[in-house]
Structure formats: structure tokens, C-alpha cells
Amino acid sequence: MKVALKIWRYDGATGEKALREYEIEAPEEATLLDCLDIIKDRHDGTLAYRKSCRMMICGSCGMRMDGAAVLACKTRMAEIAASGHVPVISAMGNLPVLKDLVVDMTPFWQKIRAVKPWLDTGYVEPPEKEFVVPQAEMDVIHKESLCIMCGCCVSECNSMEADPDFLGPAALAKGFRFVGDPRDRATVERLQAYSDEHGIWDCTRCYFCNERCPKGVDPRDAIAKLGAEAMREGIDSDMGARHAKWFVTSAKTTGWLRETELVPKTQGVVRSLKEIGFAMSLLRRGKVPPPFPPHVAKDVDEARQLYELVEREGHEGARGIVQLEKPLARLERHEAGYEEAAARGPYGPGSFPKPYLPGENESTEEGAA
Ligand code: SF4
Ligand code: SF4
Ligand code: FES
């Protein structure tokens, strides 16, 4: 088959960048990585990218296709080539680009090291030769254990784009891998450290990391589980934790988010007083409802019963995190013909998961490495 690719070339030494187009002959079963190999072997030996295992294990070949992170060795090209679309390949986001598709992974590994990615069994000696853990207890961290450290989630993280010090999805998912491990004895210390500034509560819940993780780790779910475990341990002094707690209290009591109380409940009364002028201007323009009398939802009893049900069933901590975002998203799309869209593959109109395609498949400077 004929495959056309546009690749953002970048020279770290001079800062020069250019979008180059390549057209190659490739076998039907070729992946994006195979195509890059063909380009490098037969057309342009100067192209730089990383690879090792070629089978979705080593995590080396993360890059962006049309602005969305992919593993090159997992991405088949046949459908894309048949559609006539010419994808734009660039280096991953949120990491410094060294050359072409190669990024500097140092910031990634620094975050991983910061969450202490090793089992801390304290002074507990293993009975006999080793700790034996029932499978059911290890199932809790099954997804997080699948991470291959490719960095695709970090590439797409909105919060990290705004705050490069944010621990980020990969490191926090790794953190939950140990928080959820029954052999680990450092749970509270870990949760305290992960709840600090730049930690759990700095995630904006955009779910891009779940969307782009090629191994189904669902890092955002891991972050939600860490938040729930922190709450269970009473580690809730961060503004983000107080914000989340107020949402629950407000929904339980009035079935409605009482926005005017959200700021003092989150930031504290003293800090909120400094924002009184701003709050009054919002009130005058009808941007927030008057605080009194509080608006109570018509079916508030339903909200209260729901709260009581969750409490009665004792789904506290990570066990209370419902990992249904993907099925729910699929259900929503079902109404718009999800099955047909899914059958068309990842690049048809309305397909799922849908990568970000800048300007109707046209490349832009923003898509540059
Ligand atoms: S959900 Fe959170 S961690 Fe995941 S990409 Fe969005 S901001 Fe980053
Ligand atoms: S969580 Fe997924 S996307 Fe992120 S580094 Fe691990 S395998 Fe890659
Ligand atoms: S080359 Fe190892 S994951 Fe792609």
C-alpha cells in the first residue's frame, strides 16, 4: 500500500523545525513504526525516533499522530492510508523535544521517582520466604500495574501544560499501584505526599490521559482512587479536597451546588473576604444566584437517598470509585450510532476514540513539535 505521512522535523541544536512529507510503499499490515523504519532505511536516514520492543511492551515509541498521543508500534496504517488522510506525526507534548520525534524523558522519570515507586513493607518480615497475597487483593491494582511508562498520558495532560511541576497521570497512577498494594506500609505517608501542592488535587479531570493511554491504565481513575483514599484517611486540608467535599455536602443537603458558598468553603472565610468585591459584581450581573434563601432542588430527597445508599453500602475510599466513564461515554455515543462509528475504525467521522484533528485534518503550527 501507499502511505503518506507528514512529519515535524526538529533540530534541537539550532531550534529549526519543518514539516516534511513522505510517501512510501509499505506492507498492508504495517504499523506507524514500520513506516518510520521504511522512511529511515530507504528515504531519509536522518529521521530520529525511539523504538525497542515493537510490540507495545517497552514504552519507547510514544509520539503524536494528528495531535493525539499514540504508540507507533500499536497504530496500524492500512485504514488511514485507504481513507486518503495524510496524518501529521510529531513528538509527544509536555516534554522537551531533543530531535524530531525524540523527547527528553528526564522530567517524566523525576516525577516517577518522586512518588517512591517501590514497595515499602516497613519492618514487617515476610512470613516464611515471601508475602503471599490473594489474587482478589491484587486485582485492585491490576490496571495500574499495566503501565509501560510510555508517557502518552503525560503528553496529553492539560494540567501539566499549565503547571509543569504537577506530578501528572503516570506518576500518580504508579502511586496508586503502591497505595492499593496490601503489602505496602507507607499508605498514609504516600497519601500525604501525593496530596501536597502539584499533587492529586491539581488534576483538572479532563480525562485525556484515560483517552490516550494505550494500555488501559486509566490514570485519571487512579487519581480519583487516591483522592478517595486520602479522604478516608482524613487527609483533606488541600483546597481541592475541600472543594470536592463541599460538592458532596451541597448535593446532599439541597440537591444543588450552592455556588456562593463554594468559595468560602474551599478557600476559608478570611481569604474569601478579599474577593468580596468580585463576588458582588458577579451577583449584580446575575452570574451567581443570591445565597439566601438557598435554592433547594425539587427532588432533593432523591439526592439524599443516593447519598445514604452509598454510605450504607460502605463503598468508602478507592472501592467507591465507579470506573464507568468509558462505558458511559460509549453509551452516550450509542445514540449517535456508536457501533457503526466504532466499526469504521478510529479515523472515520464520529468515531471513537477520536483523535484531535487540527483544522479538519490540516496541520497547523500548533501541532508542531
Ligand atoms: S485527567 Fe488530570 S491527570 Fe489526566 S490528563 Fe487531565 S488533568 Fe492530566
Ligand atoms: S499510564 Fe498509560 S499512557 Fe501513561 S505512561 Fe503508563 S501506559 Fe503510558
Ligand atoms: S517499540 Fe516498544 S512499545 Fe513500541
Short recap of the structure:
The protein is an alpha+beta fold and 369 residues long.
Walk me through the structure.
With 369 residues, the protein is of the alpha+beta class. It folds into three domains: 2-103, Ubiquitin-like (UB roll), CATH 3.10.20; 106-237, Alpha-helical ferredoxin (Fumarate Reductase Iron-sulfur Protein, Chain B, domain 2, Orthogonal Bundle); 239-312, no CATH class. 41% of the residues lie in helices and 9% in strands. It is built from 17 helices and seven strands. The chain has helices spanning 32-43, 78-83, 106-114, 135-139, 152-156, 158-162, 168-179, 187-194, 208-212, 219-232, 239-254, 259-267, 269-273, 276-284, 300-312, 325-335, 338-343, and strands spanning 2-10, 17-25, 62-65, 68-71, 88-90, 97-99, 102-103. The strands form two sheets. Strands 2-1-5-3-4 form a five-stranded mixed sheet. Strands 6-7 form a two-stranded antiparallel ribbon. Strand 6 (97-99) and strand 7 (102-103) form a beta hairpin. Helix 8 (187-194) crosses helix 10 and helix 11 crosses helix 15 (300-312). The longest helix is centred in the C-terminal third of the chain and has 16 residues, at 239-254. It is globular. Mean pLDDT is 86; it is low at 330-336 and 344-369. Bound molecules: iron/sulfur cluster (SF4) (2 copies) and FE2/S2 (inorganic) cluster (FES). Residues 147-153, 169-170, 173, 213, 215, 217, 219 line the site of one iron/sulfur cluster.
